[in-house]
Every structure is written in structure tokens, then in C-alpha cells.
Amino acid sequence: MAPIVQVAERVLHGIRFLIAVCVVVLFSYMVVAILTLVAGRYVFGFSVAGAAETATFAQIWVIFLADGIAMREKLHIGVDILYDVLPDILKRITALFILLLGSWFLWLAILASQRLLQIGQIQTSSALGIPMWIPYLSLPVGLGYFFLEFSIAYLKKIFAKECADNNNEETAL
To answer: Has residue 125 got a pLDDT over 90?
Structure first.
């Protein structure tokens, strides 16, 4: 295996690990914040200021980051009845078309999120005064990670046969 591929795989593994840790930490925080909010309100008779707001921000980050994880694990809904019956060359062409169209859409969404980040520079949240660029940053980060996993998934579909042929040749040697 080429050294650049090994480095790329290590970097990808590191990114995936970091994303998974962030999702677990943010989800755990969200659960604790909501439980604290509920306990404070119904057991102790007071509201914990900002718990709902920070839990909402954590939820937004979890959703956008976990979307890439769902792409990697093939958990998104897909209709592939037609795709499965296509000949190999048409499968590759279709996968290439989907990759190009999806990449174009994700690129436009990432560009559009830049305007939201600009607005977030001057806005603060209502309860705690957190700069809104922090929750808004979840959009380009999450979409960027989704783009990475999306690209990998469709590049595998496009080059699946060549990879299998190359592995067979390496095994034969």
C-alpha cells in the first residue's frame, strides 16, 4: 500500500475517532442538562438558567456530526432497487453522477453557511449570551464531515471492481 494511502487512512481514522468522541460527549452533556432542567423545575422548584439553551446547541452539533457517522455506517434511507439491477458500468456512471450532484449540493450548503457564520459574529444567545457563531459553526463542520464520508462511500462504488482486481493481483503475487 502506498505511503500516502496509509497516511490518509490514519488521518481519516483520527477524524472519525474525534467526531465519535465529540458526539458522545455532546450527547452526554445534553442528557445531563435536560435531566438537571427537569429535576430543577419539578423536584426543587427552580429553573436552571441556560440549561435548555446549551442542550439545544449540543443537540444541533450532535445532529450535524452524527449525520456523517450515519453516512459511514450506511444508515441513511436509500432506494437502490434500480441501482442493484444495473450493469456494472451503469452502476459506476450512476454513482459518479450521484457523487457529482451531491458534492455540488453540499458545496452550496457549505458556502451558504458562511453567511450564517457572519451573522453569528454579531448575535448572542438570549439566555447565556453565547456567541451564535458557535452553534452556527456546526453547519459547515457537519456538512464538511458528511461530504468526506459521502465522497468515500461513492468513490468506493465507482472504483469497487478495480479495487477487487488489484487485490486479486496482489494476492496472486
So the answer is: yes
C-alpha distances in Å from residue 5, one per residue of 2, 8, 148: 5, 5, 15
Determine how many CB atoms are found less than 10 A away from the CB of residue 154.
19
Strand partners, 124: 131
The single residue listed with the C-alpha cell 467526531 is 19
- How far is CA 156 from each of CA 50, 69, 131, 150, 164, rounded to the nearest angstrom? 44, 16, 40, 10, 11
- Residue 160's pLDDT band, with cuts at 50, 70 and 90, is confident
Any idea where the domains of the chain sit in the sequence? Answer: 3-172
Per-residue cell: 69: 457517522
Mean pLDDT of the chain: 90
Q: Nearest-CA neighbor of 44 among 54, 52, 35, 56?
A: 35
| Rounded Cα–Cα distance for residues 168 and 59 (Å) | 45
Beta bridge partners of 131: 124
Tell me how far apart the alpha carbons of residues 145 and 71 are, in angstroms, rounded to a whole number.
10
For 155, what's the count of Cα atoms within 13 Å in the CB-facing half-sphere? 8
